[in-house]
């Protein structure tokens, strides 16, 4: 009986560890997705939805990267997704900073390799993204993003990476100073009356 109890306990622990290793951090996924979509809106392209199936493989690959010395892309030759990876410090705002750094790639030509994370983020025909992360140690982590359908397709950059939309300038309303104009008009009328009186008096004044 004790043996069976111990086996059940072992199985339950194994299941909990399995679930933990394959659980997606939806809080972090939400932060990164929000940051990416805010920038997509700036370029007039649709927002991305979070794909759970894609997120599972992202999470799995992030776990693999967390145990390796070098951060490498899974398969640059694949045709199913576009991948971006960021190694970050475990602190407030670190995830947002990764997206900000990717977006800085807009400073380069869209065909420049240094712009690849930016163009992948903005790619118009991509409709969903996967997210997964893992802790490397107590101070560092790594997260993986995959976009689908894939971006950075040769020959399609112009159609899928539109420039940032210009902000519409607000028209300033010209305030008419009716009161001031009214005062000026009244003052002019008074001066005209006084001048008329002076002319009338001077003409009729006895020599």
Automatic annotation (TrEMBL):
<dbReference type="InterPro" id="IPR001283">
    <property type="entry name" value="CRISP-related"/>
</dbReference>
<protein>
    <submittedName>
        <fullName>Uncharacterized protein, isoform C</fullName>
    </submittedName>
</protein>
<keyword id="KW-0964">Secreted</keyword>
<feature type="compositionally biased region" description="Basic residues">
    <location>
        <begin position="163"/>
        <end position="183"/>
    </location>
</feature>
<dbReference type="InterPro" id="IPR014044">
    <property type="entry name" value="CAP_dom"/>
</dbReference>
<feature type="region of interest" description="Disordered">
    <location>
        <begin position="156"/>
        <end position="183"/>
    </location>
</feature>
<dbReference type="Pfam" id="PF00188">
    <property type="entry name" value="CAP"/>
</dbReference>
<keyword id="KW-0732">Signal</keyword>
<feature type="domain" description="SCP">
    <location>
        <begin position="25"/>
        <end position="155"/>
    </location>
</feature>
<dbReference type="InterPro" id="IPR035940">
    <property type="entry name" value="CAP_sf"/>
</dbReference>
<feature type="signal peptide">
    <location>
        <begin position="1"/>
        <end position="23"/>
    </location>
</feature>
<dbReference type="GO" id="GO:0005576">
    <property type="term" value="C:extracellular region"/>
</dbReference>
């Amino acid at each position: 009986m004790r043996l069976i109890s111990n086996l059940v306990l072992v199985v339950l622990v194994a299941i909990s560890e399995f679930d933990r290793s394959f659980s997606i951090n939806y809080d972090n996924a939400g932060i990164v997705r929000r940051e990416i979509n805010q920038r997509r809106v700036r370029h007039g392209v649709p927002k991305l939805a979070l794909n759970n199936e894609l997120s599972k493989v992202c999470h799995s690959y992030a776990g693999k990267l967390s145990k390796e010395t070098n951060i490498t892309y899974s398969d640059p030759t694949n045709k199913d997704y576009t991948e971006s990876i960021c190694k970050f410090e475990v602190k407030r705002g670190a995830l947002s900073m990764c997206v900000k750094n990717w977006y800085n790639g807009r400073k380069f030509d869209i065909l420049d390799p240094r712009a690849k994370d930016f163009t992948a983020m903005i790619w118009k025909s991509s409709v969903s993204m996967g997210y997964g992360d893992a802790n490397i140690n107590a101070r560092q982590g790594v997260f993986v993003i995959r976009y689908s359908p894939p971006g950075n397709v040769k020959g399609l950059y112009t159609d899928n990476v539109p420039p940032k939309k210009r902000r519409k300038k607000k028209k300033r309303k010209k305030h008419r100073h009716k009161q001031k104009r009214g005062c000026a008009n009244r003052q002019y009328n008074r001066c005209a009356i006084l001048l008329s009186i002076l002319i009338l008096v001077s003409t009729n004044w006895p020599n």
